[in-house]
Amino acid sequence: MSETHASDTPQPNEDQRLFFARPWVFIRGVPAMKFLPPEGPPEVAFAGRSNVGKSSLINGIVGQKGLARTSNTPGRTQELNYFVPDGYSGEGADLPPIAIVDMPGYGYAKAPKEQVDAWTKLVFDYLRGRATLKRVFVLIDSRHGIKKNDLEVMSLLDKAAVSYQIVLTKADKISALALPKLEAATRELIRKRPAAYPTIISTSSEKGFGMDDIQAEIANFALNG
Fold first, then answer.
1. Are the C-beta atoms of residues 194 and 162 closer than 8 Å to each other?
2. E-strand stretches of 18-156
3. Predicted TM-score (pTM) of this structure
4. Which CATH class is domain 3-224?
5. In sequence order, what DSSP letters do the residues of 192-208 get, joined into one string?
6. Residues 170, 53 contacting (CB under 8 angstroms)
7. Function of this protein (predicted)?
8. Which of 50, 70, 159, 205 could lock 55 by a disulfide, CB 3.0 to 4.6 Å apart?
């Protein structure tokens, strides 16, 4: 866990640890806006360029290797994939409801143009129009930093007044000296963006660090609204 964000991130307590002790399940893939579940419980979404490591990160957060499908082929996630804690619905549910949404990656140009356009429209329509969306975690590959289409997504979120937080993925792939510099440069880049949450979270799905920081953020929305 990096000292640059540890003090600002909600710290896990016993309720939050129990929140992630239960298995999570896939409930729905949404290929178009009309298939979205009814608005109600809060949602947090994970967005990022194709192959940024979204599925691996989600699996790391919930502690299940096979929940979100991972692939070395960019563009595999083609729908909004919804995950919730097991026991959410039905009699005897004892957890406050929240959903994790794995979004299609953006910025992948090798798929057919019609397919890329459809994914892009779905992502942007969801980000603009989902009232129950509490935060978008915008994933940035630590090796490459923020790119043009990341900035485009941030501008969209700023315009829609949707809170978003930068998550640096694959942080174990750069040097220990480079990481604080990247965090500082990223904070400076988002400093004047109105919807950007100021705390940067650095993570590694492979090494397991940073997972507790994101868990604390998610549990906070579920437990405290």
1. no
2. 24-30, 43-48, 80-85, 99-102, 133-141
3. 0.87
4. alpha beta
5. T-TTB-S--EE--TTT-
6. yes
7. Necessary for normal cell division and for the maintenance of normal septation.
8. 70
